[in-house]
Amino acid sequence: MAPLQQLIRERQEKLAAIRERGVDPYPRRFPARAMIQTACERFAQSGSEPVHEQVRVAGRLVACRPMGKVTFGHLMDASGRLQVYFKEEVVGTEAYKLFDHAVDVGDFLGVEGRMFRTRTGELTLRAETVTILSKALRPLPEKWHGLRDVETRYRQRYLDLIANREVYTASRQRCRFISAIRQALERQGFIEVETPIMQPQAGGATARPFVTHHNAFDVDLHLRVAPELYLKRLLVGGYEKIFELGRVFRNEGVDNRHNPEFTILEVYQALANYEDMMELCEFLLTEVTQTIVGSLTLTREGRPLSLAAPFRRVSLFELTKQATGKDLRAALEAHRLRSVASELGVPADDRISERQLFDRIVESMVISHLWEPTFILDYPKAFSPLAKSRADDPGLVERFELYIGGEEVANAYSELNDPAEQRDRLQAQMLERQAGDEEAHVLDEEFLEALEYGMPPAGGLGIGVDRLAMLLLGHTSIREVILFPLLRPRSSSPPPTPSSPPPTPR
How many CA atoms lie within 13 A of 60 on its CB side? Predict the structure, then answer.
């Protein structure tokens, strides 16, 4: 194969030749065209006789087989592929000569003609006019139709979408998935809102933020790690059923389950608690799964996985006792978690906090064994500063996390709305930050001031949209469900392995 620069130079020469003939290689529009799939469906029953009605289609030329004075090619648009038949005596000598000498695989073409079937029965468009819509100056990669190099696929996703039709289909499924979430919530009376992405303080989750600078105000701002504290301000203001679907940013490691920029769904309902959020979560997952998959039974890693409600409910400390044989609550209260972790063979260096160590134990010894959808209930109060305490056990909070197939999908709680207690909890978090936990919550005075005006009882739910998309679309890497995942610059070394487990979706 000729070197890339030579191929680009040849295409540039063809571009010049097109312009010399007075043809615009980048016209502004190609109106009144039909989608390829629609055109094919319309004439699918036409039989072997040519169709007299004219059709206009447009797409990328993805295959071309010149055969003297005729050429067979394939056009591809967003809906599918169609074989196109170019014949000199039909399109005209000059037009065919231009097509034959100046058009390459990868170019966008508009074609008008009539449908017919070849001897093999393939529905084909006999071109009568051909319009160059965009001249591609770079050739598609060698063997582009089987592009498998992971680095190229993620870094140049546009080539991945062209080469691997299943990737294009999956990305469209994600769009349907997002739409299904919105529709399901709107049917329940929820309103979609938007809150700031740049915030003076990044609160609402245990995560390290990205920091930027606003020149006009000469202040540092943080890309949000969660929309939670602003959504709660809307509860104070009188909204009762709200949700936000949007990006959040967490300055953490990158692996198959984590991307520093990802999509989250947060839902809040006034006069509700975490039990109401469990019911809402079950409703959302079953509705969306039925819409996208067409069934509540999935196959993951070769195993069946049912998302039929109701989901299993189990206490966190009951689950950890079953998995480890240890009373982790007693260990926490006696400040013996590090020694217990050592007994369990879980790394417990001094650089991580008790919360991070506890998460590491649960992650390594409990979560990996969960398969069917499971609500893990009632977390330690010290690790959940925004959640309301249980009335019968103030050391625990009304919180759950949902795990499916060994992956965390959702996090929810009864929202703490006592401003004095909330201040005490966040002050305790600030002490954790001073002790070295960079992911501990911040003390947000404006949020506390809002709470002092009164926030109704409420339940809040956060769902990691990308994790759920991985589950429903059958992927094991988050990079397969994000069109443009963050990648290491080509010249830099691999990122260090995170020393602590990743934060939860909220």
Answer: 16
- CA 262/CA 277 separation, integer angstroms: 22
Does residue 481 contact residue 256 with C-beta atoms inside 8 Å? no
Task: Give the integer Cα–Cα distance in Å for 28 and 134.
Answer: 10
217 and 121 part of one domain: no
Q: Is position 337 within any domain?
A: no
Asked if 104 and 183 sit in the same domain, the reply is no
Q: Which of 163, 153, 253, 148 is nearest to 208 (CA)?
A: 253
Q: What is the pLDDT of residue 145?
A: 61
| 498 in a structural domain | no
Do 186 and 296 share a structural domain? yes
Domain that holds residue 275: 162-311+372-480
Residues in the chain: 506
List, for the chain, all residue ranges whose pLDDT scores fall below the cut of 50. 493, 495-504
Q: Examine the domain organization and report whether 133 and 167 are in the same domain.
A: no
Q: pTM of the entire structure?
A: 0.90
430 CB contacts (<8 Å, ≥6 apart)?
440, 442, 443
Q: What angle do CA 110, 113, 115 make, to 5 degrees?
A: 120
Would you state the pLDDT for residue 50?
Answer: 66
Burial pattern 141-155, b for ≥16 Cβ within 10 A else e, equals beebeebeeeeebbe
Q: Which runs of consecutive H residues, i.e. helices, occur in 294-334? A: 316-324, 328-333
